[in-house]
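Section 5: illustrative case.
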């Protein structure tokens, strides 16, 4: 299933490349070359299914555009993938402050971008996967029974580790900041710090053995559960 993607990019060559490749993949596209144009274009019916947003724009920054999209009821739910220059503000971009769903670092591979877009759109269309049992590569999760297996060997997890794993799995392909995980998995207990997240992720990875590689560390930001089991680290 395709979708409508709003591409916000002020570099003409890159914009043309993205437009060409996304359309070749069956997506419809709409383009904007400034932040203000993006805010206008996003409200044109039909609303886009996803916004690909450059961070550095000539007028309003991509982070500001993203914040505005998140603050408006009409656009709050539209997934945003941010294109950033290397290492630039990534923690803010995917954190609470800005709220992008994912990011790619320039120069990015168009193929990787398309895989991420596809994964995000698939999840956006199926927000609740009401399947009792899920498999992801070598991992099998039975959520109602609170059981997991790696290669048919049952792995014993604590309730917290189980919640951490299912949270990762439900948001696969998306970067999760430590703060976000703290809030969603731990519920922000006062005594818990972001170091706690690292400790628990480390232990969870150890217990998962080879399947632990599905949880990737995003330096300076947090973690990302792969979108696909065979995904190679960028
Ligand atoms: Ca730019």
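Designed sequence:
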């Amino acid at each position: 299933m395709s979708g409508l993607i709003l591409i916000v990019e002020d570099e003409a060559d890159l914009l043309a490349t993205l437009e060409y490749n996304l359309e070749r993949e069956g997506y419809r596209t709409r383009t904007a070359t400034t932040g203000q144009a993006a805010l206008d274009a996003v409200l044109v019916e039909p609303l886009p299914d996803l916004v690909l947003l450059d961070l550095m724009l000539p007028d309003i920054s991509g982070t500001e555009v993203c914040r505005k999209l998140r603050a408006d009821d009409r656009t709050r739910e539209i997934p945003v993938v941010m294109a950033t220059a290397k290492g630039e503000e990534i923690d803010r971009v995917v954190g609470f402050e800005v709220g992008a769903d994912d990011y790619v670092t320039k120069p990015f591979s168009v193929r990787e971008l398309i895989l991420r877009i596809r994964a995000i759109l698939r999840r956006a269309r199926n927000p609740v996967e009401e399947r009792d049992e899920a498999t992801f590569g070598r991992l099998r999760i039975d959520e109602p029974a609170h059981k997991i297996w790696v290669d048919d060997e049952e792995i014993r997890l604590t309730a917290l580790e189980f919640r951490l794993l299912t949270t990762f799995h439900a948001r696969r392909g998306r970067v999760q900041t430590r703060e976000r995980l703290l809030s969603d998995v731990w519920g922000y207990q006062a005594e818990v710090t972001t170091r706690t997240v690292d400790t628990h992720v480390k232990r969870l990875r150890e217990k998962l053995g080879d399947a632990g590689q599905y949880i990737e560390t995003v330096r300076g930001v947090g973690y990302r559960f792969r979108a696909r089991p065979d995904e190679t680290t960028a």
